[in-house]
Design goal:
single chain; 104 residues; 2 domains; 4 helices
């Protein structure tokens, strides 16, 4: 089909319309095969050494992901605290300056 678009675009266009009309392009077999490959990492391979290595690596990656999410939460909390402190300081300055202008 790609070669059809490159060399003879009407033939490629006709093939595209035929595939859409025939519903091959959006068939269930295409969707299930791609979804099946995503879960193949969870199945045991039969090689016990590799399965142990894979399990250990996945557990380590999960621990690292949890640590990274904790780090990101602390970073967000620190940013929120800094923004809040800046807001309070600005609010105090505005309140002090408005009080000085009222006194004058």
């Amino acid at each position: 089909m790609v070669l059809g678009f490159i060399f003879v675009w009407p033939v490629g266009l006709a093939l595209l319309f035929y595939m859409i009309w025939n519903k091959r392009m959006f068939s269930r077999s295409c969707r299930t095969s791609s979804a099946r490959h995503g879960f193949s990492a969870m199945r045991p391979s039969g090689n016990t050494a590799f399965d142990a290595y894979k399990e250990d690596t996945l557990r380590r990656l999960e621990d690292e992901r949890g640590g990274f999410e904790d780090f990101l939460q602390r970073l967000r909390d620190a940013k929120d605290k800094a923004e809040f402190d800046e807001f309070i300081d600005n609010h105090a300055k505005v309140a002090a300056s408005s009080k000085e202008t009222e006194d004058a």
